[in-house]
Amino acid sequence: RRVAYCNISCQKLNWKEHKKVCFPLGATCTRCCEVITESNADQCIVPHPVHLSVDQGGTMGYGGNTWMFSCEACGEHYKKSSSEYNVAAAPITGGPKFCYSGPHTIKPLPESDQRRISSDVLVINSGPNCQSEIDTIPNILPDVRVLTIRNTTGYDESIQPTLNLSLPKLKTLKLIDVCFSTVNLNKEMTPSIEELFMQNIPDECDVTVKLPKLKDFSMHYYSPDDGGWVHDMLATATKLERFESYKFRVYTSELRFASNDLR
């Protein structure tokens, strides 16, 4: 609702009352998904989204651990530090603590504005219950759009989950530092995946990737004896636009891309 004021001072004096019109109590903020109340009326806070936080390296040692990230949602860099090796629990010690901190909004956000909490985004931190958490995804969040499964406390070879689920709405999948025994992604079970990032998947992992809609693929630290699945993936991914790798070695033969859309 538009209101005219004679000057900024008058506008500020009336804000306590007018904000009830702009942000009515009981409404849900479209950015943080919180119900607006008297106590949080001026506190819309969004953490840096895990799936949009890019690892920029770090340092580990007896003096403590530091991790650096860049947030693709807000464009800022931030640092996490802790004496314990647990990046998920480590506090932010440098850069902005939040992706967004400011007033609420009840207006629809433009798709380009990712500074938000989304109900179709899921993060699973690997641990003793990792497999059961993965298996329950179709029940707790059947329409998951973005899924990240990561290890935050150091590579643990005793935890070897499998990923073999029907997730028809899944578009972005990130598997980070988890010792998977099986990863099965195909057009029948995960037909909508467009972005796939895998890091430190075991060389002996049983991998199947046949995704016709795949546009963005990244693989870090992978040197299998038999990388046949990679050739199958490239033959199927006819819409692939980006292929990025680091310490990714497939010795069987040269890579052939079926896509003509590579950038």
According to DSSP, the number of beta strands is 15
**Per the principal axes of the C-alpha atoms, what is the gross shape?**
globular
Order of helices and strands: HEEEEEEEHHEEEEEEEHE
Q: What radius of gyration results from the CA coordinates? A: 22 Å
Q: How far is the N terminus from the C terminus?
A: 45 Å
Can you give the helix content as a percent range?
A: 10-25%
Report low-confidence residues grouped into runs of 5 or more: none
Quaternary structure type? single chain
Structural class given helices, strands, pairing? alpha/beta
What does it look like?
- With 263 residues, the chain is of the alpha/beta class.
- The chain contains 4 helices and 15 strands.
- The chain has a 6-stranded parallel sheet. A 4-stranded antiparallel sheet has the order 2-3-4-5, with no helix packed on it. It has a 3-stranded parallel sheet with strand order 9-11-13.
- A hairpin with a 5-residue loop joins strand 3 and strand 4 (77-82).
- The relative contact order is 0.09.
- The mean pLDDT is 91.
SSE arrangement:
Layout: H1 8-22, E1 44-46, E2 53-61, E3 64-71, E4 77-82, E5 92-94, E6 100-102, E7 121-125, H2 130-135, H3 137-140, E8 146-150, E9 162-163, E10 172-176, E11 182-186, E12 195-199, E13 206-210, E14 216-222, H4 228-236, E15 242-248
Parallel strand pairs: 7-8, 8-10, 9-11, 10-12, 11-13, 12-14, 14-15
Antiparallel strand pairs: 1-6, 2-3, 3-4, 4-5
Structure keywords:
263 residues, alpha/beta, six-stranded parallel beta sheet, four-stranded antiparallel beta sheet, 13% helix
Q: What would a concise description of this structure say?
A:
With 263 residues, the chain is of the alpha/beta class. The chain has helices spanning 8-22, 130-135, 137-140, 228-236, and strands spanning 44-46, 53-61, 64-71, 77-82, 92-94, 100-102, 121-125, 146-150, 162-163, 172-176, 182-186, 195-199, 206-210, 216-222, 242-248.
